[in-house]
């Protein structure tokens, strides 16, 4: 089985962002970038699926990003992926989900993969769109936010957390599955894996984008909130609080 894992380079979650000058995205000066945490679950699951088949098959990681994304691709290779493909674009951060999905779908078709895994969302924009859009462009079945995956032949059984329980989905290969936290515990890339990753193939090519559907015109921080307001204490403050919520805040 040839498995494609779509991954993304994102700012670390503890990054204090600020708008970039002259472009509708963050100022990347001094920002630490990492492999998208949810994509780590996808990489781990792909590796486990390959290992369950005695090592048969191939795990290929694919990323749309700038040349700097080679670092995160090497991390995936150090975890155990067989090879990597960088769809290089210095302006990748400004592309909308439809463009990214088009580029990834084209790469998957060229690879001849029958299964695509990716994280449920990127922690930077947090839109949760890419998996569904890739599946739509490929015309494949799709299950999102998978907390458990089992594959028997061409049959897939996926479970996802819903309010009050779990939803069980059954679909067939080829398919696109997005991965949720709790699906597995991603392995640590040890020294042996890091050294091996330096010799694994990392191909760079131009992305084949789909037409954009969204254009980001500006990117700015939200306005600062005004200070709090004390209207009194105890039961005597209730009437005044209700009046302010009705007449000033207009939320009642």
Give a short synopsis of this structure.
This protein has six helices and eleven strands.
Which architecture name does CATH use? 3-Layer(aba) Sandwich
Strand order of the largest sheet: 9-8-7-10-6-1-4-5-11
Task: Please give the alpha-carbon distance between the first and last residues.
Answer: 57 Å
Total strands: 11
Task: Predict the CATH topology.
Answer: Rossmann fold
Helix content: 25-40%
Q: How large, in whole angstroms, is the Cα Rg?
A: 22 Å
Topology as H/E string? EEEHEHEHEHEEEEHEH
The top-level CATH class is Alpha Beta
Sketch the major β-sheet: 9 strands, mixed
Blueprint (SSEs and pairs):
Elements: E1 2-7, E2 9-11, E3 33-35, H1 37-52, E4 58-65, H2 70-79, E5 83-88, H3 97-111, E6 115-119, H4 130-138, E7 141-152, E8 155-162, E9 165-172, E10 175-179, H5 191-197, E11 202-205, H6 238-247
Parallel strand pairs: 1-4, 1-6, 4-5, 5-11, 6-10, 7-10
Antiparallel strand pairs: 2-3, 7-8, 8-9
Helix pairs in contact: 2-5, 3-4
Task: Summarize the structure in words.
The protein has six helices and eleven strands. Helix 2 crosses helix 5 and helix 3 (97-111) crosses helix 4 (130-138). It has one domain (2-205): 3-Layer(aba) Sandwich (Rossmann fold). The strands form two sheets. It has a nine-stranded mixed beta sheet, sandwiched between helices. A two-stranded antiparallel sheet has the order 2-3. The mean pLDDT is 94. The chain has helices at 37-52, 70-79, 97-111, 130-138, 191-197, 238-247; strands at residues 2-7, 9-11, 33-35, 58-65, 83-88, 115-119, 141-152, 155-162, 165-172, 175-179, 202-205. The protein has 252 residues and is an alpha/beta fold.
